[in-house]
Amino acid sequence: MNKLYLIPLAVMLALAVSTNSCSRADAGTTSATACATDDLENPRPFPHSAPLHYPDLDKVRINDSIPSQEKDYEGFRVSFNKNNGTPNWVAWELLGSETDGPVKRSNKFREDPDVEGCPTPADYRHSGFDRGHLCPAADQKWSEKAMDDCFILTNIAPQNNSLNTGAWNTLEGKERQWAKRDSAIIIVAGPIYEPADTKRIGTTGVRVPGAFFKMLAAPYAEKPRGIAFVYPNMASPGNMENYAMSIRELEQIIGYDFLYTLPDSIEDIIESSASFREWNRRN
Fold this sequence. Notes:
Elements: H1 9-19, E1 69-73, E2 76-81, E3 86-95, H2 121-124, E4 130-133, H3 144-149, E5 156-159, H4 161-164, H5 167-182, E6 184-192, E7 200-201, E8 206-207, E9 211-218, E10 225-232, E11 244-245, H6 247-254, H7 264-272, H8 276-279
Antiparallel strand pairs: 1-2, 2-3, 3-6, 4-5, 6-9, 7-8, 9-10, 10-11
């Protein structure tokens, strides 16, 4: 495993604060279909999306020593860690057209019997932690099945209420704004564990993470861009920019490889710089 995966949380946050100032020129946007390089013969992993795309952006490489059972749900993909009882990562594409819809929030949390180590709702009951979504319910209003699937506990990790209802929720709202602006964005989210993160909840022994990450990429923008965030699993006050970093820096911290199916030139652009101001612009 990459030794940088074990960097203390304080170092990660210091890294985030020190790197949020890097930027590129403001980029315009275009449709998801206009900038893609594939042809129509390549099957799309998200059948609800546009037919032209960069394939397999919802795939993440992780160290072989990390337990992982991958499973596709409606609208998102999970790598589940049976030892932690939480996902290693959850990945999805969010289209601007999917940021709103008629489907109401389900709240039907449940286990997946086909996934080894999946917790039960009872594991979270009276634990002191929220059932924190990695792929949020508000991204799934476009489909009854997608909404139902996102409450399966393979998409959940123990999250401090102040983070879940505060900074994490704010970031989720921003993601929907950015998806509307850029036509489509790729998102990968997951917990971050350090050796000191030994607390477990419930009879299944769900491990409580010390932090959470999110990676965002806009590969179909006129000038592709990316950004990542790391939040400690506690109240995270202050400007979102303080928690931002480049995707490459996040990869060094957790040892994952994102967006490896992109052409190298585009991957390098997306992963090497991160301007929160550019991401947060209105248009």
